[in-house]
Amino acid sequence: MMKRLIALAVTTGLAAIVSAPATAQDEAGDRVNTVIIYGDDECPESTDDTITVCARMDESERYRIPPNLRQSDDPANDSWTARVRSFEQVGRFGQQSCTPVGAGGDLGCTIQMIENAYADRAEGQDIRFSQLIEEARADRLSEIDAEAAATQRRVEELEESYMRQLESERDAPLPGEEEAMPQVVDPDEIPERPATN
Question: Most buried residue, 45, 53, 68, 111, by CB count within 10 Å?
């Protein structure tokens, strides 16, 4: 019975530890709304808690099937050029061929993967939302920096006016001191005494 309670406590603790990062990921970062707009449509504006990123496509793409769904892996859809290339590769073996047959046949696999990746990139029409999101975040940060600088200037102006007010209050006479202070007379304004002999 005790072993079961210990095992239950350990599994409960592990479940709590594993679920903690998932909840932290949900709370962190800005919410991002990715929208595809066509032609001259307006992009919805970002709000304080949501970054809206728009990818603009040509007006002719509005009612078409999305580009990533237009392709098919069905062999019947291959062009004759692609079929001829595959026939050329059938009997190829040896060095730089990416086959298990022949000496150095595996050396061509890396080259083939690189060529396939470049071909996919050249033919792909994917929208790079991550790049658009980073640009939107940079714009938002630049606005925040400008607002922070303006706020700092206002704070410094208020501090300067407050310090001037404190200095003027410190230099002013206290109430009741005005009568007790002797009058200071300019020596040039004192009339000359008549001479007595």
Answer: 53
